[in-house]
Amino acid sequence: MLDAAAELFYRQGVGMGVEALCQAAGVSKRSMYQLFDSKDAVIAASLDRWAQTLRTQMFPAAGDARPPRERILEVFEWLEAASADPDFRGCPFVATAVEVKNPAHPAAAVARRHKQALTDFFAVETRRAGAPDPVLLAEQLTMIYDGASARAVVRAQPLGGIAVTTAALLLETAGVLEDEGGRPAGRSMRVS
């Protein structure tokens, strides 16, 4: 049920009715309410479940020994490829948070948690790369990611390299470079 709900909410938004949700998931309303207290709980649980799939697709594997810059740019390369899919509807976490409007909604809390996981990934990698302010750089990278995702949706077209190029430029400005041996070479430059 959660997989069907995640797909349906992503394509049509979380404002759809319970009847349509139950029909798509192949369950009765009664069954849904036996499993979940409310539609809001279904939205939050389905978004949480989808997050696990997205992390597997987006993030490099834990044992991936490539330099931090390459690992960061891989996330943007994934976004570029995803934006070329005709079914791309942007970041499901941003879309859900915008649609539910209420920051106290259970799905908004799930969205914040998973957006923070992206920022945390960037922070770990930028710290490994020796960035002078890895937390700020991680937040900036997340903003580029979210902005690029929104741009692809608004323009209804693939990103065409702009997300990777912009992220790479920000990393370069912050001193997250790779020397000729593939090792990070940081500068003491603050990005603001």
The global form is: elongated
Protein structure class:
mainly alpha
User: What's the mean pLDDT score?
Assistant: 89
Contiguous runs where pLDDT drops below 50 for at least 5 residues: 179-192
Any overview of this molecule?
The structure is a single chain. This protein has one domain (2-185): Orthogonal Bundle (Tetracycline Repressor, domain 2). It is mainly alpha-helical and 192 residues long. The radius of gyration is 19 Å and the shape is elongated. Helix content is 67%, strand content 2%.
Pick out its properties.
two-stranded antiparallel ribbon, mainly alpha, 9 helices, Homeodomain-like_sf, Tetracycline Repressor, domain 2, HTH_TetR, disordered C terminus, 192 residues
In a few lines, what is going on in this structure?
Helix content is 67%, strand content 2%.
Topology:
Blueprint: H1 2-12, H2 18-25, H3 29-35, H4 39-58, H5 68-83, H6 92-100, H7 106-128, H8 134-155, H9 162-173, E1 177-178, E2 184-185
Antiparallel strand pairs: 1-2
